[in-house]
Amino acid sequence: DIQLTQSPSFLSASVGDRVTITCRASQDISVYLAWYQQKPGKAPKLLIYAASTLQGGVPSRFSGSASGTEFTLTISSLQPEDFATYYCEQVNSYPHSFGPGTKLESK
Amino acid sequence: EVQLVESGGGLIQPGGSLRLSCVASGFTVSRYYMSWVRQAPGKGLEWVSVIYRGGHTEYGDSVKGRFTISRDTSKNTLYLQMDSLRAEDTALYYCARDREGSDIWGQGTMVTVSS
User: Fold this and answer.
1) pLDDT value of position A86
2) What is the DSSP letter of A52?
3) Chain A hits for B106, Cβ within 8 Å
4) What is the per-residue pLDDT across B41-82, written as a single tens digit (0 to 9) for each?
5) Which one of A36, B47, B66, B74 is separated from A3 by 20 to 30 angstroms, measured CA to CA?
């Protein structure tokens, strides 16, 4: 089974900051990685799929990239509504797996 | 409106069984891969199971042999039959439409396994 790690686990940032979250896969998953945002008491929301394709309706300040087995989610200019927990998910093969999450908090 | 609505959660004793339902509207369940994902209180997301368009199923190691995913096309509904429940199955269970990532999620139904 494929394992995902995320770094950092916690991130403190301010509105306007550029933020980057990293997800690493234990083996090659091509570009089959998705990113989600989850706010307390809510279901996850798909932000990016296929490593870098923005889901419809997601602001363009969110972007994703891939290099080998390392994937990054970048928020170019943090907005107040972006404070949440972010998860990556590999969708290359079943069983799918999620990263442990990155909690983005206000500094 | 495209949406998923789960139901069937509750408090159940260890060793018991429960069946979760997920009613879809705005799209046809059988035309998509459909998944169950769970989240223990205060914890991260855990992928549980998927049913392919063709009916093939896959399970996570932690539920294999105990949980069964199925669907009823006439009711446009996804199910998760959960048997031999354990305390560690306590979680909020989400159903989701599975594409290259899950683009539609329900609100979740809570399952608590406790004596």
Assistant:
1) 98
2) T
3) 43
4) 999 999 999 999 999 999 999 999 999 999 999 999 999 999
5) B66
A101/B45 CB distance under 8 A: yes
Q: What's the pLDDT at B100?
A: 87
> In this structure, what are the phi and psi dihedrals at residue A7, rounded to the nearest 5 degrees?
-145, 145
CA angle A61/A34/A41 to nearest 5° reads 80
> How many C-alpha atoms does B73 have within 13 Å on its Cβ side?
7
Q: What is the 3-state secondary structure (H, E, C) of chain B?
A: CCEEEEECCEEECCCCCEEEEEEEECCCHHHCEEEEEEECCCCCEEEEEEECCCCCEEECCCCCCCEEEEEECCCCEEEEEECCCCHHHCEEEEEEEEECEEEEECCCEEEEECC
Q: Is B55 on the interface with A (CB under 8 A)?
A: no
Q: Tens digits of per-residue pLDDT, B5-20?
A: 999 999 999 999 999 9
Is the distance from CB of B94 to CB of B105 less than 8 angstroms? yes
Q: Are strands B109-113 and B10-12 parallel, antiparallel or unpaired?
A: parallel
Query: Residue A68 has what DSSP assignment?
Result: T
How many CB atoms lie under 10 A from the CB of residue B56?
10
Q: How far is B74 from chain A, CA to nearest CA, in Å?
A: 26
Q: What is the CA radius of gyration of chain B?
A: 13
The pLDDT assigned to A97 comes to 97
